[in-house]
Amino acid sequence: MTRPDILYGLEIPYDKPVEELVQLTKDKPPSCWNAYTALAYNTSDRAIDALDSMLTNPDWTHVRSAIEAIGKNSNGLKLENKLIDLLGNSNKFIVTAAIKALSNLKSQKAHDKIKALILFENLEIRQAAIEGLSNIWQLSDFDFLLDLGKHITNDTITKTIGFVLVEHVDKSNWKSFFNNYSKDTITRHREWSLCFANEFSSDRTLIEPFILDKDGHIRKKAKQFMETTKSA
After folding, report:
1. What mean pLDDT is reported for the chain?
2. Rounded to two decimals, what is the model's pTM?
3. CA-CA distance, 161 to 171, in Å (whole number)?
4. Contact 192, 174 (CB under 8 A)
5. Architecture label for domain 6-138
6. Which of 41, 35, 48, 42 is nearest to 8 (CA)?
């Protein structure tokens, strides 16, 4: 993870001791947010303990910043249980921050609870949960998301599911992706299907239909794949 040097036009105070950084989190924005960033990259026990204490701040924006910092901190898993508890918070911004933090920390312990949030009513929470699942992936998640995608009408969620599935396509499941998305209305889904057919299969009849695709880029790519096969 690349450590930023400047945010909001200000240098991040990495050189400050933890105690001073804690005081800086009480300053007005954007100074306070940079202090959280400095704590995120501080590997000391004092830093993670300080972030722990900030989870009880009555201002949810500061709780969110503390969660984000914990998710980036090398000692963040020490607060794994507390982050999991925050998945049940009534504030959607705190929940989405907790999802992202636990995903960044690759918390397998949080897998089932994050997966359950995919069925939540709030769009932002659903999207964050789908994206968050990618870092804590289990084999059964592929079929779960593939099936879920068949019943979703929201384009944002549909595209998010597609992006996450693509990250986990391999020779064992590419055909399931292909069968589901090769004729999809979303262009990139058809293009991915085409690319997977070319990568994982020698059956050119799977590629031929894409030569007539309504998208010119896909038609061009399909023709290139067919010509490559002929010259091989």
Report:
1. 96
2. 0.94
3. 19
4. no
5. Alpha Horseshoe (1.25)
6. 35
